[in-house]
Design a protein that fits this description.
InterPro entries: CheY-like_superfamily, CusR-like, OmpR/PhoB-type_DNA-bd, Sig_transdc_resp-reg_receiver, WalR-like, WH-like_DNA-bd_sf. The longest helix is centred in the middle third of the chain and has 16 residues, at about 105-120. The protein has helices at about 10-20, 35-40, 60-70, 85-90, 105-120, 150-165, 170-180, 190-200; strands at about 1-5, 25-30, 45-50, 75-80, 95-100, 125-130, 130-135, 140-145, 145-150, 170, 210-215, 215-220. It has eight helices and twelve strands. By secondary structure, it is α/β, with parallel strands linked by helices. Bound molecules: calcium ion (CA). Calcium ion binds near residues 8, 51, 53 and 54.
């Protein structure tokens, strides 16, 4: 598995390269946007880790040119904490995920593994956890064999939670992916939607799957399908 890191901060770049190499990946490191873009276009990478603020060409520019050339290589964006609008913009431009600096290496590695796994498996038709089932083709949800009716937004929310099961999804990510809105907007919308979804999907069933992680977001427990 080959990973490209585009990061101009010397310490961060070296640290990520060393960590990923120790985790068994083949890693190239570019220190500016143009070098990164050239490597990304020439090399056969499974994943690109892309900083936003870069010399010569910023991360958005790299991503935009990469997508315009038809490359679907998964991209993990690295952003500073106060660049909320940037994150939304990155996702809109076709980034697959983002991570806010500073982050723990363990979290970074978990995101990397998830993106690599997602890229490798072909699109599943059914998403499952425990006795919960979401049929993407027929757009049907069932729990314990019982059909559950969801609104379009509830379906989209459950689909996102199931796709990223086991991961805590921040409200900002849910807002941008399901509601297409900025995370500064009224996040109450998300709480209400999660409550309704839970009432339909979790309340009358065991085990409980949707969990609130206080101050962080929501996670759908990843369990063996039954
Ligand atoms: Ca930077």
């Amino acid at each position: 598995m080959k990973i490209l890191i585009v990061e101009d901060e010397l310490k961060t770049g070296d640290y990520l390269r060393q960590g990923l190499t120790e985790a068994g990946y083949v890693v190239d490191l570019a220190r500016d946007g143009l070098d990164g873009l050239h490597l990304a276009l020439d090399g056969d990478y499974h994943l690109i880790v892309l900083d936003i603020m870069l010399p010569s060409l910023d991360g958005w520019g790299v991503l935009q040119k990469l997508r315009r050339s038809g490359r679907e290589t998964p991209v993990l964006f690295l952003t500073a904490r106060d660049e909320v609008a940037d994150r939304v913009r990155g996702l809109e431009l076709g980034a697959d995920d983002y991570l806010v600096k500073p982050f723990a290496f363990a979290e970074f590695l978990a995101r990397v593994r998830t993106l690599l796994r997602r890229g490798r498996i072909s699109e599943p038709e059914t998403l499952r956890s425990a006795n919960l089932e979401l049929d993407l083709l027929r757009r049907r949800v069932s729990r314990d064999g019982q059909r559950i009716d969801l609104t379009a937004k509830e379906f989209a929310l459950l689909e996102l939670l199931l796709r990223r099961q086991g991961e805590v999804l921040p409200r900002s990510l849910i807002a941008s992916q399901v509601w297409d809105m900025n995370f500064d907007s009224d996040t109450n919308v998300i709480e209400v939607a999660v409550r309704r979804l839970r009432a339909k999907v979790d309340d009358a069933f065991e085990p409980k799957l949707i969990r609130t992680v206080r101050g962080m977001g929501y996670v759908l427990e990843s369990m063996e399908p039954v």
